[in-house]
Amino acid sequence: MRFGVNYTPARGWFHHWLDFDLDDVRADLDSVAALGLDHIRVFPLWPLFQPNRTMIRPRAVEQLVSLVDAAGERGLDVNVDGLQGHLSSFDFVPSWTTTWHRRNLFTDPDVVDAQARLLTGLAAALAERPNFLGMTVGNEFNQFSGPPHPDPDRIRPAQAGRWLRRMLAACEEGAPGRTHLHASYDAAFHDGEHPFTPAHSARLGAMTAVHSWVFNGTAQRHGPDGAAEHLAAYLVELSKAWADDPARPVWLQETGAPAPHVPPGRAAAFTEATVRNALDCPGLWGITWWCSHDVDRALADFPELEYGLGLLTNDRELKPAGEVFARLAREHRSDGPTSPPPPPAPRRTALVLDAGDVEEAPGRAVSAPGGAFFEAWMRVASGGGRPAVVLAQRAGDAAHLAARGIAEVVAVGEAG
């Protein structure tokens, strides 16, 4: 079990790449390592690393390598998100894809070629670093492909699949054998019109990434307790329904305690409940909290909830949620003073999800907050059950059920 954080620099947020200061980075990483965590996820801003379609800035790549090396000196492994892309409500796309040069981020041949070159270049620069885990294609890059983005690059699921395969192949070309994956925000699992699908998430790349945010309608409907505390575990289990490999690992790559949906006074309790519920999911690779450090309030125009998501303040002081996360990490470390808890037992009962066609899942809205499947799963989980999820197409497949340790399937109407 891996415990880490999404690294948000304490000084200047991700704009720190403009005035990169390795001493500041080292101080940040010291505060992360002091929590007893084992990895970070980092975010090079696309326009700064590739300001022209045929130019990848050597100095920017050198700075990324120095960050990865500094993390390694502190016992931290590193996953690198290649295309930024989108972060905390801001889009970071290079000028050669916008306005007079506007072209589709997913289908224009020149743009796709350039994206692939960047991913290969970053991966190759890090390929020999022992603490380099691998690449994530980009942070929720799927948000560019449809509503609610104000200017989406519209594509169909088949085009999304082709783009993802090309990007993952580019990562593998640069760093063969590393753990390369992609990450979508939860429209991929909940919106039947969205071109990125659950099958893409659960079948492409080395593992499945899920991002759990209770402001997706869960907290609005249920408050900060109950269903909100089970949301991360729900998404982990939901993703498994589409996996062809029953043993495919799932990475809870983002989760956090966003105010006011989770009141600041409840952040520590919410963190504990969310993490413990997720740890009860078999096949979980790790949990990476969003985020390491708060956003400095001297920086303008962030949504209010983004400023206080850190485990540490932007003065690098530990917050109550950080104390909880660090304690849970210590409890589950295999090299800690005590033996970690045993892995969770298989989830023996599965709720049957009918989202339509397996590849495109046009009916996946039933799994969104307020949907019949979501609400049924949450009733079972909040009542102390440990539900898994199985697609309707596989509910009668004895071999599939056995491989996942499922002994009983239950229809949504029978769950309660």
Task: Produce the secondary structure layout.
Elements: E1 2-6, H1 22-33, E2 39-42, H2 46-49, H3 58-73, E3 77-83, E4 86-87, E5 90-91, H4 109-126, E6 132-139, H5 157-174, E7 181-183, H6 187-190, H7 198-203, E8 208-212, H8 218-222, H9 227-240, E9 250-255, H10 267-279, E10 284-289, H11 320-332, E11 349-353, H12 372-382, E12 388-391, H13 398-404, E13 408-410
Parallel strand pairs: 1-2, 1-10, 2-3, 3-6, 6-7, 8-9, 9-10, 11-12, 11-13
Antiparallel strand pairs: 4-5
Helix pairs in contact: 1-3, 4-5, 9-10, 9-12, 10-11
Q: Enumerate the strands of the largest sheet in spatial order, edge to edge or round the barrel.
A: 7-6-3-2-1-10-9-8
Give the rounded overall mean pLDDT.
97
Name the CATH superfamily assignment of the largest domain. Answer: Glycosidases
Shape: globular
Rounded to the nearest angstrom, the radius of gyration is: 20 Å
Intertermini distance: 31 Å
If you consult CATH, what is the topology of the largest domain? TIM Barrel
> Any low-confidence stretches, pLDDT <50, length ≥5?
none
Secondary-structure element sequence? EHEHHEEEHEHEHHEHHEHEHEHEHE
- Give the number of DSSP strands: 13
Molecular structure report:
This protein has helices at 22-33, 46-49, 58-73, 109-126, 157-174, 187-190, 198-203, 218-222, 227-240, 267-279, 320-332, 372-382, 398-404, and strands at 2-6, 39-42, 77-83, 86-87, 90-91, 132-139, 181-183, 208-212, 250-255, 284-289, 349-353, 388-391, 408-410. It is of the alpha/beta class. The chain has two domains: 2-332, TIM Barrel (Alpha-Beta Barrel), CATH 3.20.20.80; 349-414, no CATH class. An eight-stranded parallel sheet has the order 7-6-3-2-1-10-9-8. It has a three-stranded parallel sheet with strand order 12-11-13. The protein is globular, with a radius of gyration of 20 Å.
